[in-house]
Amino acid sequence: MTSVSLLNPARPYVVFGKPDIQQAEIDEVLDSLQSGWLGTGPKVKAFERAIAQYVGMEHAVATNSCTAALHLALLASGIGPGDEVIVPTMTFCATANVVLHAGARPVLVDVDGASQCLTAEAVEAAITPRTKAVIPVHFAGWPADLPSLRSVADRHGLKIIQDAAHCLEGRIESIPPSRYGDVSCFSFYSTKNVVTGEGGMAVTNDRAVAERMRVLGLHGIDADAWTRFSSAGYRHYSCAAPGFKYNMMDLQAALGLHQLARVEENLQVREAQWARYAEALRHLPLDLPATPPPAVRHARHLYTVRVRPEAPLTRDALMAALHERGIGTGVHYVPVHEHPYYRELLQNPEGMYPVASAIGRDTCSLPLGPGLRNEEQASVIAALHDTLSGADGRQPNERSERA
Asked: Engineering a disulfide at 370: which of 20, 31, 86, 185 sits with its beta carbon 3.0 to 4.6 angstroms away?
């Protein structure tokens, strides 16, 4: 069924990041509702096992967001006040926020222009005696160079806690990136490749870290609700630490179990849509996503294009024009160093992050994913051609906002 515009309900609207929810998910949610077990229960446990198996890790801890998973991973890894954590500035602000929530200080670094990920060289240059961890972000689904980052981390005794919100399906030489990290965190937000509405997961091979995350993720108590109220009988609990309310519900896991079952099939859909964009947009004044090396499997989470200086519209004007034509887009991202809070906190000099600043100014993300129908993608392509060639009668906007 075609989505409609909230501003004009009569007009079809191509939603950015529309999830693909099928009957299997609906039936599983209904089963949870009828069972009476809505909170953290058997389906969360099953989803944890399925994710751990998919990425080849021993332990998985489900949470209510990737942000929560990252926060718990930092705390369980011993990161706290006085420590520094290296974070790419080209990421969602949550990646830096969780470092502050742990009591540590984020150290922002610029990214590679092609992958838009951290590089080992940038990390090495940012290390100080206070550095305790690095958080690589696999931007748009392109895995960061984990072998090189692992080498740097091992040499300096650093933890690698991966923000893999975009990259569940990513591989490096057929190996999931999570196997290079100490803890890796995934997102199942509504726009992600596996959807639970809200939700996240951390995976690790360190049993002690996983157990600590479980305790901290549910108020700091030593037994979760499923254990305490299951058919095995009631168990008393005790609070072992001042924890958080970060647990996932069975209602969410009910979606995730079937979403994960289709993840490889859906990756093929994304690959086909990616190739369609690459062919159809190559003559427009846009820089299309770079091609990863053959050893890297891209998770195809975001299709980002950069508006070139010679284009008749700025990035923001292009997004507004597409919206007027019933097409949603996204910005990924305003770099962390450009947000007012981090400008004030870090006091970094102007021009310190030229690559991320240019990406953040010129990039927009186009609709992509199994929820996008072929005719909807065709309308996105047609709108880009019309808008960027002036065929819709628009006057080129002034580009004075460009630096």
From this structure: 20
Domain count, the chain: 2
**Residues 297, 156 share a domain:** no
Sign of the CA dihedral with 138 first, then 97, 110, and 287 last: positive
Give the helix ranges, DSSP H, for 164-239. 207-216, 225-229
Q: Find the mean pLDDT for residues 170-174.
A: 98
Last-in-domain residue among 261, 276, 311: 261
pLDDT digits (tens, 9 = 90+) for 225-235: 556 555 566 66
In a domain, 215, yes or no: yes
3-state per-residue secondary structure call for 246-261: CCCCHHHHHHHHHHHH
Note the pLDDT of residue 181.
96
Q: Which helix (H) or strand (E) holds 368?
A: none
Q: At a CB cut-off of 8 Å and minimum separation 6, what does 98 contact?
A: 67, 70, 71, 74
Query: How far, in Å, CA of 140 to CA of 115, rounded?
Result: 9
Q: What pLDDT, on the 0 to 100 scale, is given for residue 9?
A: 54
Q: Would the pTM count as exceeding 0.85?
A: yes
Q: What are the φ/ψ torsions at residue 139 (nearest 5 degrees)?
A: -65, 130
Amino acid at 311: A
Q: Which pLDDT tens digit goes with each residue over 315-374? A: 999 999 999 999 999 999 999 999 999 999 999 999 999 999 999 999 999 999 999 999
Greatest alpha-carbon pair distance for the chain in Å reads 71
Residue 295 sits in the same domain as residue 180: no
What DSSP element (H or E) covers 100?
helix 94-101
> Does residue 400 surpass a pLDDT of 70?
no
**DSSP-derived secondary structure for 37-88:** --SSSHHHHHHHHHHHHHHT-SEEEEES-HHHHHHHHHHHTT--TT-EEEEE
Same domain (yes/no): 286, 233: no
Domain that holds residue 296: 263-389
Residues identified as active-site: 192
